[in-house]
Each structure stands twice: as C-alpha cells, then as structure tokens.
C-alpha cells in the first residue's frame, strides 16, 4: 500500500471525529462568542435578527456591573482561602502518611472518599449539617456555644462554603502531595542529613523545593475547579444572603437563566475564560522551565 | 604504628531478622590512606558506607574514628563525608547554594561561608559556574559539585560510593585524575567503593575485596592482583579473571603428578618440585603433606596461558570465541569440556574452531583449598624447567 493511500485512509477515519468535535466544541464557542457582541435574548426573535452592539456588553460588565466585579473578587478570595487551607491540610496529612502506623491503609481510603462524592450531594449534605437545628449547631451547643444561623449571616455563609469546599477537595491535595512525596528521591535527603541538616531543615530546604512542580500542578488543577465553583454554593446558599456568597459561575448562571440576558452572560463567561487562562499561565510560570525541559 | 583513623570492628548489619548485608567486617584504615572496597553489586559495600557515615545503625559491632566509638554520634556530626553514586546534588539550587548547604546548616556566618564556598569552587574548578542551577549541569560537573559540597565541610574521612560509574568514559578518566589530585592535595582518609577494579587499582593504596557481606582479602593494590588470597578474589580481579579449575591431583607410581579436572587431564612436574611456603620459608615439605589423591582448585591466569605448538603444549583446546581488545585478544577455549580463557597477541594468530595448544609455566599455577577457597602456600619450583 502506498504512503499516500495510507494517509488518505487515515484521513477517512479521523475526519468524522474531527467534524463532530468541530460541531460540539468549536461551534458553540464560536456562536457564544458572536452572541457576546449582540443584545440577543431568546424572547426577542432569533440570534440572526439580534442587533450587533460591539463591545457594549464588555464595557458594561467592566464599568457598570459592580455585582460582576464583586463576584470575581469573591471567587478569587474564596479560591485563595480554600486553596491555602487545602494545601496546608493536604501537606500535613501527606507528611503524616509518609510514616508507618496501624490502620494506614483503611485511613487512606477514608481520607480519599470525600472527593469521590458528587458536588451536589456534598452541597446538600452540608446544607443539612449547617441548618439552625442541624448537627453542627448541636455539637456547638454541647460545647457550650450558641449555634449561629449559618445562612443568614454573610460571613458565616461564606465560611460554610469554605468549610464545605475544603472538606470536599483537601483529599485531592493530599493524594497529589502524597504521591509527590513518595517520588522524592532518597539520596538528596540522605546527603542533606550527612551535611548536618535537621529534619525541619531537610523538609524545608530539600523536600519542599523538589515537591514544587507537584505543588504548582495541584494548585493549577484546583484553581481551575474553584473558579468554576457552582454546585455546592447553589445547594448551600444560592449565593445568599444577598449576593454575599455569589461566585462568578453562579452569577453567570443567574444572568442567563433567571434574567435571560444570554448575550450579556456570554460576554461575562468569555471574560472569565480569558481571566482563568491568564491566571493559570501565571501560576505555571515558576515551573515552566521544568515542564518544558527535555529529559536527559 | 600510627593509630588507625577509622576502625570497623566485627561490624554486622542484619535486615528483617535474617538477611545479612554486612557480615562481621573488621577493617582498620590509617590516616591519609585510600582504601578501595571492591566487590560485585549487592555484596554489602554501600551498606558498609551507610553504617560508617551514620545513615544506618549496625546490628552489632563498633565503628571508631580516632579510637573513639561514633555509634552514638548522629550522621552529620561524625566528621565523615559521603559522595553518592547518583551525586544527589540539590537540583533546585545553584552551584553556590549546593556548596554552601553544609556550612549553612551548621550555622556558619555568612561571610565565612562565602569565602569557603569560593575557595572550594576554585578547587573543583567550578568558580565560574557558581550561579548556574544544578539541574543545568552535566554529569562530571554534578560530580564535582557533589564532591565540593562534601569537601567544603572539611570532613576528615571521605567516603565515595561508586563516584565514577555514572560518567562517560572520557569524563571518567578525567575525574579519576582529579580524584588522584584531590587525594594528594588534601591528604584525606578515603574509602572508595567501586565494582571497577581498574578504578580501585589506580586510586587506592589498599584494596579490600568484599563478597556476600564479608571482606575476603585486604591487600596492597598491586599485590592483590598478583597474589589473590581467595577464589572469589581470583575470579573477580583481572581482565579476564583467573581460570579456576576444580582439579584432583593424583600421584603416579613413578612419582610424577597428574591433575584431573573433569575430562581434562594435565601432567604436572614431580612432587619433589612442589614447594610449601606455609612455614614461611621455601622447603619441600609438601612432599609429606600430599596424600595419594587430593582435591584443589587450580588458578590459571589467562595471561600465563600462551599459544604453543600442540605437541609441546601443557593443554590443548578448541577456540570457541575471540574477543579483540586492541593490544591483544582474549580467547575462549573448550579444553575437553572445561572452559578456559587465554590471552593471545593481536592480530590473533588463530581462528575460531581451531584446535590449539597452550603453554603454562607450572610455577604459575595457584593452589586454592577446595573447602575454604583460600589460597594455599603451595607452588611448583621455577627451577623445574631449568
């Protein structure tokens, strides 16, 4: 069989797949992108009939829409708090699991369970837990504290979202960091010990730097997830009280499906997409050289 | 005699109850001496180093530095440095940070660190690369950083764990030279672990050959090659190593001796020419010791087996393989079912499958005890042919 023939047969097999991805991936994105430059809503005729408004939607979002900007700020704050807590807890657990102790295997499975639960189920469960007469407040009462109304106070509602998110996703950090720690070569650690480093110095100066790429990757994965955070907040607070726990995904959802401002929502979604790309790029900067490095 | 710098006394390391990695080693190393621990992989060399440096604790026995036990001194405070086979350089740090690490951990003032690091960097010829990240360095540079990082803490004993085995041939030759310079410049006491005899011979004052966790012979570098004390040493050292033949010696009625190794039989000089040196002097006492039939292991050095006309040969065999080495070539021979190695000049005067004769001076036969595998002080007299 000739080389040309082989290539055309190859094309025959791959073309349908490429067409399907064009249809389901690129097309909707392109349509949404176009939509973001119009004032279309489904109640007023088809998209083709909608008026082209140029950058109007984007201008309005950036200049006038304080709720959008607040939601972005809130999402970033939530990401920062959650990721730091998840990282510290995950690292602590991973270091603990580097030692041997009884029941380690069972405990490992138990610690990994939360991240296997559906976000909607986690949201619903914590919504129940944080009810005024719920188990969390009952425990607080046993400890002699008055259980607050979690979802009526904006700070507490935010805290409830953080707690839920941290419970749900610390296991991912734990898992990634544990495998990272296991992959750290032994000899540099031994070399550091011989050179006089104590365990704390070994961890700080030798182990942690070697773990850096793994840590960055964990942060990137989780950042992308937290920016998209929707289900749990939707189940817990619906963004309330007021808009005090409204994440950017939740706000875009409300724009599109409560207010039917589809083109405006599309513009918001595209801005978030560009913002996330920039953020991920920024996060990857410290290890870019290592990621691009050829293997010797 | 000067007090040894480092002493290992009945050093034993067992893992999980029964696995013996280091089996009762005794060793004394003088100040400024370089000792090579030579042996195949898995014979306990690296474990011995880990015990000396303090990364592992022995199951029993003692380690003394300058006469004092260091078993209760943690690694890092023993004044002993170790350079790892894979260098174990901190890749996220620069060369400078790597060199400064040990001093920083010891709380040495920044100014002193700076001076020491720069001096060491000059010594290892890395002073123009101080700001380069270690992950961007090549093999021999990493090696130099690993050595420099250890030297900067000024240990009195330096342990090197197969330091050249990860390097390319030319880098290895250059590094070997540098290690020799380092040895003469610093006068350190060095233990050098290797499985490469050429390295051991070129760098060490003495060689300790290890096998199965035991040291089976410790000898001057040159002498150990000439006079292997044990079949393990004979079968490991030399290139190719000595041929070892399980031979039974029988005495004929006329007093002459015959050695039988499988289907191969070799006629030997008469018993009267077999000398026994075990008494410390040349005397033909072997005469009385030799029973009617005795079992030995014969050691025949490949270099001593030379091509000869078949009717004048000590033994004959069929060439099964020829391995050219540049200056000469190694012949593999089948001598009546016994496999032997011999060295022939280059270009090789014989071809594969050729039936050839080999000459051997009977005085060059080594005798090993078949039970203990130790070399016996027996030898045929050189005057035999005179």
Question: What does the model show?
Answer:
The complex is a heterodimer of chains A (296) and B (386). With 296 residues, chain A is mainly α. Chain A folds into two domains: 1-27; 65-295, Orthogonal Bundle (MetI-like fold), CATH 1.10.3720.10. In chain A, 72% of the residues lie in helices and 0% in strands. Chain A is built from 13 helices and no strands. The longest helix of chain A has 33 residues, at 3-35. Chain B has 386 residues and is an alpha+beta fold. Chain B is built from nine helices and 22 strands. Chain B has a six-stranded mixed beta sheet, sandwiched between helices. In chain B, strand 11 and strand 12 (257-261) form a beta hairpin. In chain B, helix 2 (95-105) crosses helix 3. The longest helix of chain B has 18 residues, at 169-186. Chain B starts with 5 loop residues before the first strand and ends in a 6-residue tail after the last strand. Residues 281-285 of chain B have low confidence and may be disordered. Chains A and B meet through helix 8 and helix 9 of A and strand 6, helix 2 and helix 4 of B.
In short:
The complex is a heterodimer of chains A (296) and B (386). Chain A has 296 residues and is an all-alpha fold.
Features:
heterodimer, A: 296 residues, mainly alpha, MetI-like fold, 2 domains, globular, B: 386 residues, alpha+beta, six-stranded mixed sheet, five-stranded antiparallel sheet, 9 helices, elongated
Structural category of chain B is alpha+beta
Give the termini separation of chain B: 43 Å
- Distance between termini of chain A? 38 Å
Largest sheet of chain B: 6 strands, mixed
Find the structural class of chain A using helix and strand composition.
mainly alpha
Radius of gyration of CA atoms of chain A, rounded to a whole number: 24 Å
Number of helices of chain A: 13
Biggest interface and residues each:
A-B, 20 and 26 residues
The SSE order of chain A reads HHHHHHHHHHHHH
Percent strand of chain B: 25-35%
Output the radius of gyration of chain B.
Answer: 25 Å
Q: How many strand units of chain A?
A: 0
What characteristic shape of chain B results from the CA principal axes? elongated
Oligomer: heterodimer
| Average pLDDT for all residues of chain B | 85
Q: How many individual domains of chain A?
A: 2
Strand content of chain A: under 5%
Low-confidence stretches of chain A: none
């Amino acid at each position: 069989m000739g080389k040309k023939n082989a290539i055309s047969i190859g094309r025959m097999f791959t073309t349908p797949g490429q067409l399907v991805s064009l249809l389901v991936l690129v097309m909707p994105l392109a349509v949404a992108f176009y939509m973001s430059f119009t004032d279309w809503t489904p109640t007023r005729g088809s998209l083709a009939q909608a008026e082209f408004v140029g950058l109007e939607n984007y201008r309005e979002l950036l200049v006038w829409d304080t709720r959008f900007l607040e939601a972005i700020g809130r999402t970033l704050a939530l990401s920062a708090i959650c990721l730091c807590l998840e990282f510290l807890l995950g690292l602590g657990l991973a270091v603990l699991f580097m030692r041997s102790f009884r029941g380690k295997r069972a405990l490992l499975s138990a610690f990994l369970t939360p991240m296997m639960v559906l976000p909607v189920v986690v949201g619903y469960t914590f919504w129940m837990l944080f009810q005024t007469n719920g188990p969390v407040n009952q425990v607080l009462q046993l400890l002699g504290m008055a259980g607050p109304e979690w979802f009526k106070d904006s700070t507490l509602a935010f805290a409830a979202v953080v707690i839920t998110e941290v419970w749900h996703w610390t296991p991912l950090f734990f898992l990634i960091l544990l495998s990272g720690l296991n992959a750290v070569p032994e000899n540099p650690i031994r070399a550091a010990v011989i050179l006089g480093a104590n365990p704390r110095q070994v961890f700080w100066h030798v182990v942690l730097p070697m773990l850096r790429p793994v840590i960055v990757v964990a942060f990137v994965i989780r950042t992308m997830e937290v920016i998209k955070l929707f289900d749990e907040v939707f189940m817990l607070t619906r963004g309330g009280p007021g808009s005090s726990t409204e994440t950017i995904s939740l706000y875009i959802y409300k724009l599109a499906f409560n207010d039917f401002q589809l083109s405006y929502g599309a513009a918001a979604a595209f801005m978030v997409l560009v913002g996330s790309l920039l953020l991920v790029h920024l996060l990857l900067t410290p290890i870019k050289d290592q990621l691009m490095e050829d293997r010797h | 005699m000067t007090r040894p710098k480092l002493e290992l006394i009945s050093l034993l390391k067992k893992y999980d109850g029964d696995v013996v990695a280091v089996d009762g080693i005794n060793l004394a190393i003088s100040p400024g001496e370089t000792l090579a621990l030579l042996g195949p992989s898995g014979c306990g060399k690296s474990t011995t180093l880990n015990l000396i440096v303090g990364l592992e604790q022995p199951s029993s026995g003692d380690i003394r530095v300058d006469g004092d036990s260091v078993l209760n001194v943690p690694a890092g405070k023993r004044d002993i440095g170790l350079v790892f086979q894979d260098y174990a350089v901190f890749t996220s740090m620069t060369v400078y940070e790597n060199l400064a690490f040990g001093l920083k951990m010891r709380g040495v003032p920044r100014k002193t660190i700076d001076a020491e690091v720069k001096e060491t960097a000059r010594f290892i010829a890395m002073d123009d690369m101080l700001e380069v990240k270690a992950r961007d360095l090549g093999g021999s540079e990493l090696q130099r950083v690993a050595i420099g990082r250890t030297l900067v803490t000024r240990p009195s004993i330096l342990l090197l764990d197969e330091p050249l085995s990860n390097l390319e041939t030319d880098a290895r030759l250059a590094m070997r030279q540098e290690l020799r310079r380092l040895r003469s410049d610093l006068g350190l006491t060095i233990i050098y672990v290797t499985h490469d005899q050429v390295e051991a011979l070129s760098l060490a004052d003495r060689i300790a050959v290890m096998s199965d966790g035991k040291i089976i012979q410790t000898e001057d570098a040159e002498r150990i090659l000439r006079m292997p004390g044990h079949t393990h040493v004979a079968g490991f050292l030399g290139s190719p190593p000595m041929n070892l033949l399980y031979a039974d010696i029988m005495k004929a009625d006329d007093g002459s001796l015959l050695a039988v190794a499988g289907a191969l039989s070799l006629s030997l000089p008469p018993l009267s020419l077999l000398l026994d040196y075990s008494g410390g002097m040349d005397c033909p006492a072997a005469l009385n010791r030799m029973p009617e039939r005795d079992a030995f292991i014969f050691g025949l050095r490949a270099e001593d087996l030379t091509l000869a006309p078949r009717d004048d040969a000590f033994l004959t065999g069929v060439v099964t393989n020829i391995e050219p080495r540049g200056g000469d070539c190694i012949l593999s021979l089948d001598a009546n079912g016994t496999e032997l190695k011999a060295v022939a000049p280059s270009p090789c005067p014989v071809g594969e499958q050729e039936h050839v004769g080999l000459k051997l001076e009977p005085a060059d036969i080594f005798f090993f005890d078949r039970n203990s595998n130790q070399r016996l002080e027996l030898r045929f007299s050189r005057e035999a042919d005179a």
